[in-house]
Every structure is written in structure tokens, then in C-alpha cells.
Amino acid sequence: MKVGLFIPCYVDAFFPEVGIATLELLERLGVEVVYPLDQTCCGQPMANSGCQEDAAGAEALFVKNFAPFDYIVGPSGSCIHHVRENLTAIHQTPDVVRVRSNALELVEFLHDVVGVREFPWAEFPHAVGLHNGCASLRALKTAKMSEIDEPFFSKPLDLLSKVKGIRFVAPRRPDECCGFGGTFSVFEEPVSAKMGYDKVADHMSAGAEYIVSADMSCIMHQRGCAERMGVPIKFIHIAQVLNGARK
Amino acid sequence: MSMKRIDHAEASSKFIKAKDHLDFHDKRLWDLRTKRDREAEGMPEWEDLRALASAIKEHTLTHLADYLEEFERNAIANGAQVHWAKDAAEHNQIVVDIMRSRGARTLVKAKSMLTDECDMRPFLENRGIEVMETDLGERIQQLDDEPPSHIVVPAVHKLRGDVARVFSETIGTDAKNSDVHYLAESQRQHTRPYFLRADAGMTGANFAVAETGTVVVCTNEGNADLSVHLPKLYIASIGIEKVIPKIEHLGVFVRMLSRSALGSPITQLTSHFRAPRDGTEMHIVLVDNGRSERLGMPDFWYSLKCIRCGACMNTCPVYRRSGGLSYGATYSGPIGVIIDPTFNLRKYSSLPFASTLNGSCTSVCPVKINIHEQIYKWRQIIAERHQLPFVKKEAMQIAGKILANPRMYRAAVGTAGTGIDLLPRFMMYNKLNAWGKQREVPKAPDKTFRQWYLENRAKKRGKR
Amino acid sequence: MSSRDEVLARIRKNQPPPLPLPAAPAFGGPAGSKLERFKTALARMGGKLADPPADGDLDGLIARLFPKAGVICSATPEVAGNRRLDQMRQPAELDDVDVGIVRAVFGVAETGSLWLTDAQFRVNTLGFLAQHLVALLDPARIVLDMHHAYRERSQFDARYGVFMTGPSATADIEGILIHGAQGIRTLTVVLAAA
């Protein structure tokens, strides 16, 4: 099994530590991981603005880079959702179809393919508010959403629950959107910021020291809010926790 | 009605500044969402009912012409008269003509979003017909000369002090008394004489049953029944998508409607109007106004399943923090976002971007409309028709070119120690400084992931 | 071409490929007495329940429940009242009724609803202009849920019918619940065999 490591453009540029943690974690688990050096972006920024023509180049390049792999794994729910559900600006060749269906978000890959549940090197003795980004939650269905009446399940919780010392606190609105939404964060700035402030305040009221998420875009937005709010809550990506980060 | 492009973000900014109003609005609608959840959890068949409701609607819409003809046949056999309006203007004219020909000058009406969509009230009032909104929320808005902000709770954006002000200025209540019971009682007492002497009454329809020609109206206040049982003339305005096949199907929809809207098992009154009482007339106006066009749109016809419950508005985090009026249309919130562009693409071009695509709306919709997917599709149409409201097409083209080319991408992103202000514009689009208004910007790292990889992995493998 | 023809033609042109009508399954309800479920649901929706009079004197019961009532108007022969419906000429004449009395056809356990048609109201405005309504209900005539209610097919031949669930209500101002919006202020159900 050869895995192509997909590092979203904004992770590459701003949060390389998340990419590093993802790579190290997969290596620790004995996964053969290759990082295609010519990757750029999945095309979501253009596609989410409706600009299919402008997304086509990035989408074609994505498929070209990742066609040789059995799985394509990336630490971003929204990017992987885009690849699986919306990579439609390009002609759907057999390669495109295959790459799309084999693209998995990191939590999905660890939970469903590797099947790992314990991370003996990990320890995170903090009160954690788990944030499931909306693409991960509702589109990729990595956990039960509050809107649907069904039995409880949560892939991120399955992975995190045995981490030494970790304890969870739940906000009042566990899966209300945090307000990032891509370009929404700048073009609907007033509502976006209010949503982010509300989300941070909700986690703070629950007593969270850290907000942990599989989506760095959500974290980027919430952390930006928290820092401006001047509150001490901290943020970390799930890959970093599972890879053994203590803080 | 203005044709000016709606600026949702600008309107939302004003809404957010009124902190007490915003907090109440957000909490009240979230409370309705929570109540909906409790109803759903109490019914093991909830998801089955959603699937059933969706399938019944999809079947009906794909056979709509036959069902409308069946409805019309049965309505006529019941003694009702059926009129067809191809658009809003024709609807309004038909209503005026019916009233004028019977010498009717006063109209009491129950809540009907369709009549708001057709902008009926000013049309009637300009022709000498007095129109009384009898639903408390709609009446507040009528007296305040403001459209309803929510399709189920029209004045949810107001606090009691606002209502006290409006009533004191219009129906003579005590400006200093904002007790809610006092205000509601005042509206009841003030409205009652209008019911008693009205020449005509009007309702919309939640459902129109083809099998029997029955018009079904769900209210809590009893104002639909009073509007129909008192005057000698009853007019029902019905969007053509409201038809359902049989009486038995009401079991599914009536069980879903109020639970989705308010978290209550049923509305206080579920009224079935089949035929006029002796000596009176019943008129039904079937209205198209773009619905038959929408039926032919493969990506958007599912929006016609809507039963107007408002659950999507209650759950939408953007709607709760911006208010229905910020959408500038009769239909606001998620359902408004996917319907309104069919009325005027340019005017409503910002609405599909007033969304984070979080998908909560789709998951609470009792008829399983794929709302957030349609929002996504509308963005494509808006971009294709060059109606992108803020992002310049050129910026998107540049971004697309850079991200399609590995070397250009690396050149744009890879400089070590690049400050955020030197960030390539394509990554943050046009309104870069908007991010920093209320948020700190991320700090630029020493190196990109790719650079780290080259130094720490690729070298070890003897790669360049 | 009339608007009717134009609209129908456009619909026929645009209708998506046909999708089938699903069969509605029979959903079971929770176990337990339908009567008890009805009582709980009725209370939740703001309706009241009054014990039937031991001596069978319904007029007496109503006088006790509404000691200040002036005009008492009954649509059912089981209660006399003091305002006769057969002398009504206009539905608006019921505006001064303090207490109206009707007999419901059946109740619905799921929701606490009562089904009434124009036959039960005799004058429809009785159910809406009266300040208070008393509804007699045979406890043996309670159906399980709304699916069962809508299967009482002949009831829907009536010119007018309504599921009445508690009194009229609104929460349009700040979400504060008010009973007695435009219609009745209170609904009292008296369990009495028909």
C-alpha cells in the first residue's frame, strides 16, 4: 500500500508543523508515504467561488500528482471533501475517478484503513474541546451530527480517547459551524468573526484548555479570534496530538 | 421593489451591532432548533418520515400537471372557483378583480408568504382595498411597514420594546407598557372588529390535496379560521408546488411540519377547507410566478419540495446572526438563498456567498432538500454569468494559474520568513484587511512544509 | 392561450422524469394507554381536562368551571346553554359568546388533538369567536396518531374540518407563549361517552 501525502496549500504555507506531524505519524504506523513534490492545491478556493474554469488547472495537476498511489491522505476535511465530491472541473477519466474515490482525510485513513486505536507515544493531559469541522462532520461523516437522530459514533474520538491524560469537555453547541467557510471569512467578515468569537467563548465556558481539530482552516480562524479576544485557550491539530505533541 | 444588488454582509454588520437584539435572535432560533431535535429524537421513525415526505413531494412534482388538474376538478366539484396566475402581477389582478366584482373593500388575511412574494398588499391598498394582517407577527410588521423577517415567526428580530413602540404609534397602546401579554391582548382586541365586518378573507395553503380539492392551513393563532368563517368571500392563494396527492399523505406532512418549525408536535389549529358554506364563495388562485421554470432546472427543482417550515433558518448560524431582513427578499435564510436567484440573479448574487456551506440546513430539512449543494451550484452559475459580487474574476484567474503551476506556486509561497502582509494576494483574495478587523493573522513560519521535507526526507533519500 | 393552459404546458414541458409514489408504512406508536397519552399531549399543548360530572349535569359543570360566563352557547344537545344556535343568522353574532360547547368526533393520542367539522360546530365561528371552548370527547374514540386520524376518510368529505389542539396561541413576541391569540383562550376537554 503506497500512500501519497497531500499537504493542502495553506498547511504547506502557514502550518508546516501539521504536515510534519501527519508525515511522522504515518511513518510511525509503518505506512509507506511519498510526498509528491509538484503538488500545489486541490482547487477548492476557486471552485468554492463558483469558478470551475479557474479550478480546472489545479484539479488536473492534483490528479496527475496523485494518480500513482493506492491512497491519497491529507490532513484536511474540507480539501478531501472537495476532491471526493466536487472535483468536477475536469473531465472524469478513469484516473480522476480513482484518485477521487481513494482520497481520504487523515482521521478517516487512520480509523478505517489502518484501523489503529492506540497511540502509546501520545500523552495530552489537558481539557480538550473537540471541534469537528463541518466538511469532516457532515460531508465526510466522521462523527454523528446533532441534526440526525442516529446512534452515536465519532472517529476522531475513537482515535483520541486512549491518549494518556486526555479529558474532554463539550461546548453547548458542539457542532455549530465556527464560521471560517473559506472566502466567507473575509467577504462576510462580520458574521464570520461573530461565529468564531461565539465558538471560542462556548469552548471556554466548557472549560477547554485546548481546542483540537482535524481541520487547520477552522483552527486558523478560531485561533485568530481567540488571540484578538485575548483569551488563553490554545489550539492544536489532531495529527500533532496523535503524533505525541505534549502541547 | 428595488432592483439594487443586495449586500448581505453590509446588512449583517448593522444587525450584529445591535447586541441585545442579536443575542435574543440567535438564542430564540437556536432554541427552536433544539426543540426540533428533541421531537426528532422522540420518534424512531423520524428519518423514515423525512425520506417519505421527500419521496411523496418528488413524485408529485414529477407529475405536477396531472395533480393540479385533479385538484382543480375536485375544487370545482366542491363549489369553489379556480383561477390560474402565471405571475405575481396576474395574481394580484385576479384578487382585485374578484373583490371588486363582489363589492368587497376590506380583507382579513392569514399569513401567506406567497402574497408577500407577489407584493400583493400595496397593490390592493393602492386600489382602495383595506388589508388587515391578522397573524400577530405579520401585523406587527405591517404596522411597522417592514417585511416579515422569518417565514414562521415574522417579528422574531424585534424585542418587546420595539413592539410597544410600534403599537403605541399605530393602534394606541401605552408606549411605556411592553408587557407581552398586554401587547398580544391589545392586538387581539384591535383586530377582532375587522374580522367581524370584513368583506373577504384570505389564506395561503400549507398543502392542497389533489384527491379532494382541500386547502389545508396550519396556524397557532386561529386567524385563518376566523378569516374564512366570517366573511362571505374566501380567497386562497396557493403556489402550484403545494399540491400533494391524497388525504392520507397529510399524516406524513402534518407530523413533520410543526416539529420542524417550532419543535411542537402539531400547530394548535390544522384547518381543512374543502368547500364554501351556503351563501358564500370560495376562490382558489393557483400561482406559478417562476415555479414551472424552476421545475425544469435539473440542479434546482428539488427546492420546490419546500413546505415552508423554516427549520433551515433556525439552524443556519449565518441567518441567526444576520436576521431575515438582511437577505432583502421574501424568502431568506438557506431556502431563500437557493430560490431568490431565480427571481433576480443579479440582485441576489451575494446570497449564495452568505453561507459557509456547513450543511446543517440540509440535515434538518423535513423533505430532504439538498440545500447546501444547491448553494454551491448557484455559485457556479453566478460566476459563469459574470455576476460575482466581490471577488474580481481576474483575481480568480490569477489564482487558478498559479495553483496550476508548481513552480509559480513555489515562487509565490516559498520565501522563508515572508511576512503575512507580503502574502500573495491570491491566497486571501481581495479583502485581505477584512481578516484582521476582528482576528489576529497567522504568523508566517520559517519554512514551508515542502522545504522542510526536502531538508529532512528527500535529502535522506538522496533526492535533489 | 389562457394562463391556465400556459402554466400547464410549461409544467408538462419541464417536469423531470417521473418518480414513483412511495407506499406509506404503518408506523407503530409507543406502548401504553391511548387515553393517557392523549391526556399528556393535551396538557402539553395547553389544553385542560375536566372530570365529567358524577350526576351527568353538564350545564352544572360548565357553570362551575365558568362562574362569570354570560353567554353560553352549545352546539351539542347534551348541553343546553343560554344562547340558541338555531336562531343565528350571521356567524358574527357569536362574537359575544363566553363559553362554547361542542362534541368532538374523535381525539388523537399522539398530539392531544380533537377532530371537529362543521357538523359539530353547526356554526363554525363557535370554535373561534367564543372566549372559551368546552369539548366533549368519548374516551373510546381516541386514535393512535395522525396517520390513523387521516385514515378516517369519510371525515374529510366535510366542507370544513379542523384538528384543534389546545387553545389558540402565539409566541411571536420574544418567544413568550400566549394562550388566546385570535381564537379561543382556553380549551377544556370533558371525557364523556357519546
Tags for this entry?
heterotrimer, A: 247 residues, alpha/beta, 4-stranded parallel beta sheet, globular, C: 194 residues, 5-stranded parallel beta sheet, 4-stranded mixed beta sheet, 6 helices, 11 strands, 22% strand
How would you explain this protein's 3D organization?
- The complex is a heterotrimer of chains A (247), B (464) and C (194).
- With 247 residues, chain A is α/β, with parallel strands linked by helices.
- Chain A is built from 13 helices and 8 strands.
- In chain A, the strands form 2 sheets. In chain A, strands 2-1-3-4 form a 4-stranded parallel sheet, sandwiched between helices. Chain A has a 4-stranded parallel sheet with strand order 6-5-7-8.
- The longest helix of chain B is centred in the first third of the chain and has 23 residues, at 19-41.
- The termini of chain B are far apart.
- Chain B is α/β, with parallel strands linked by helices.
- Chain B has 23 helices and 10 strands.
- In chain B, helix 2 (19-41) runs antiparallel to helix 12.
- In chain C, strands 1-11-6-3-2 form a 5-stranded parallel sheet, with helices on one face. Chain C has a 4-stranded mixed sheet with strand order 7-4-5-8. Chain C has a two-stranded antiparallel ribbon with strand order 9-10.
- Chain C starts with a helix and ends with a strand.
